[in-house]
Amino acid sequence: MIKLCLAIETSCDDTSVALVEADGFVRKMVSANQDFAHAPFGGIVPEIAGRNHSQTLLPLIDHLINEAGIQFTDLHGIAVTNRPGLVGSLIVGIVTAKSLAQALKIPLMGVNHLEGHLVAPFLKDESYQPKFDLSEPYIALAVSGGHTSLYHVKAFGDYQILGATLDDAAGEAFDKFGKMLGLGFPGGVLVDKNSQNGDPASYAFPRSMIKEDNFLMSFSGLKASAQRLLENMSEDEKLEKRSDLCASFQQAIVDVLMAKLDRAVDETGISRVVITGGVSANSRLRQAAPDWAQKNNIQLQIPPLRFCTDNAAMIGYAGVMRLNRGESSDLSLGPSPNSWPQDFVGKGR
Ligand code: KG4
Ligand code: ZN
User: Fold this and answer.
1) Which ligand gives the minimal distance to the CA of 86?
2) Taking the CB of the first residue and of the last residue of the chain, which one, N or C, has fewer CB atoms within 10 A?
3) How far does residue 310's CA lie from ligand 2's centre (Å)?
4) What is the pLDDT of residues 127-172, one digit of tens each?
5) Rounded to an integer, what distance in angstroms lies between the CA atom of residue 251 and that of residue 266?
6) Per-residue pLDDT, 40
7) What would the mean pLDDT of 61-73 be, rounded to a whole number?
8) What is the pLDDT of residue 21?
9) Is residue 314 within 8 Å of 112, Cβ to Cβ?
10) 107 lines ligand 1 (CB under 6 A)
11) CB 125: neighbour CB atoms within 10 A?
């Protein structure tokens, strides 16, 4: 039985490490954000992300172990994100995890980053306890900068894709809109912040595919429509209308996500729902989803912000559950920009 697992997450631009127990209790997590390094470029630069991980990761692990007051020999296993993600970033975490597993003679588990997001709502710590556990099927909306998908989670490790975005991820749309408005990087949080006093009905942004009887989504039309609108506005007007623009753009995304989620619950008859991934930090989504859940008698779980955005704790929980099922990765574990074919069932519709 693996009781304590060290987890490493370096799939994109956040370096994160955590100590996770077998039941998903997060004993400690520390993360290093790289926004300062990518902000001047208005987006993530893969080479810079990889270089920063390689400078940050080992000192961060040292810090984690010290802060937790444990020794490396107290670890029973190591979980590391090995897919999907930026290859140059993933490699840093994988090589470190392999070396530590070899040196400590403990098992290693390569984890799919998206599986991490799917179990994130069930993590626990001193101030968060989920309302239901992952022993029964649930619907998951995983919405981040790289992915926007709806899953029917039949059991841990058994994931059916109901549908996904055909083009941009919702987080990507937020980030691009933030950039168009000159808000800075990363745009999602800044669009959210600037939307606070805005009127969400002031601009009629498109809600692509919202009425279609499927689980597919598309956010590229929304982005193009925003681009056209902003091109015809003066800088002063953009500034003056900033909060209305942000609120309206945000509302269009939230409406689409909620409509597809509602359809998933209707079609599957499953009334346990989680929303996970970086965009689940969005304040409008965090208002709309509980209202919808209450009206429709749905058990809803959205993790706290620290478990929404990329974090190692979710990788640790997925990893420790897999290790305790008798699975492990060998030293040939490598990075993959995509999920493996066996990770998810179906392509969605
Ligand atoms: O899950 P995550 O940390 O990384 C990926 O796996 O992509 O998600 C990051 C995404 C970014 O696009 C970011 O702008 C978005 O989540 N995001 C938000 C908010 N906080 C983060 N989008 C909208 N509102 C927010 N409050
Ligand atoms: Zn993510």
Assistant:
1) 1
2) N
3) 5
4) 999 999 999 999 999 999 989 999 999 999 999 999 999 999 999 9
5) 22
6) 84
7) 98
8) 98
9) no
10) no
11) 18
